[in-house]
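HUMAN: Forgive my ignorance: could you write out one protein's sequence and backbone structure tokens?

ASSISTANT:
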Amino acid sequence: MSSFNPIPKSILAALPFCALNMASTAQSTAPNIVFILTDDMGWKDLGCYGNPFNETPNIDKLAKEGIRFTQAYAACPVCSPTRASILTGKYPARLQLTNFLGGMRTDDNSPVLPAGYKPYLEAQETTIPELLKQKGYSTGMVGKWHVGDHDSIAPWNQGFDYCRLIGKNGLDYYNYSIFMDSYQNEFTDQGSEYMTDKLTQYGVDFINQNAEKPFFLYLAYSAPHVLIVPRGDKLRKYLIKYGTSKEKYNPYYAAVMESIDDGVGMIVQTLREQGLLENTLIVFTSDNGGLGLDELGPTPTSIAPLRKWKGHIYEGGTRVPAIFSWPAKLTKDRVSEQYFSSIDYLPTFCELTSISELPSTVDGQSILPLLVNPEKQETQTRPLFWHYPHFSNQLGRPAGSVRVGDYKLVENYETGALELFNLKDDISESKDLSKKMRQKTSDMHLLLSNWRKEVHAQMPSPNPLFQAK
């Protein structure tokens, strides 16, 4: 049975079902890059990560054809900072973009006020598409931007040639709008075209229009972010099997996930039709952890055994799925336990395309050697950092953390309390080792503190209204 699922005629019509396009013979040997970013997809929401309820055959096949990482991280537990880290290769703390745009929550009962932050990615920052354009790449952005709305920092002024940017009603899946290459050209849906399918169609259009030269497609789905509104024709089977698993899964969320999976299948099929699949690196990942509590409706997904969820500095908020497929270069059916962060995509793509000079103060490092060398599984000692000095909508508190090897230290910015975990033995972060391993705790706290100073991280301030009980 084929793993490809039916999708609307509006998308099918965009496919070149004629003879195989011969663009691959004319195209440069430079690899294409398709970067697929989902919104709030949890670490184990995919079948290939062990989910028994959601049906994601196309994404699972992508993993089977490439590498699936079990310890990939978003640089922040909320969306905008992670998106900025992907585009620039820099930590959100260095960019001072540490919260999602519009995030202003405070807590009168807390001893601290959240840190200030820049609600935009500065125009002076160098982005992946700006770098790739220098190498002759066509660049396309489809979907959710969410790192600044002003025209000067919109995607068409941040290196993207082709832009299909979600406009109004970005949390809905119907009755939305799409800006096409400018704020003056707007498509408005009247409740007829499912947004996930529409974004896929735009991605297909970009590939078909740019098949004769190397391209970079940044396809940023708004799904499976709340509101959880699925296509009606996908819901029935999930309602029927609701309650059949030990964990509680949301059938509406599963149907939304299936539409993403359809989109991935369509992108892969388009590349195959154009003769481009072999020389295209496809990356599939999420901007932060899944949502594990009620928000604008019933709880979308289960994060267990990870601790907490989106908006929290613990593993449930930052550990994400990450799949790489490149048929011409990558060994199939690999699972890697090596960790990396969303700051690493820019330097990886630069090495991939022979860009030797990175922008200044890039924090990430290329993981290309890890991708192309199946034997590269050395013990990791590289530190990764997180800084979230805010109160999230998902009940997260101001905190920071650092991971080195198997150990992770978490600092509570309200109380100064420290926690230390061995993630190899305790993936759920349930056993605090800080009292047993005082020197390790002290060393890692110093490392985190020095890093915050180096990147000029903005910290919470005292709350003048707080009254200790």
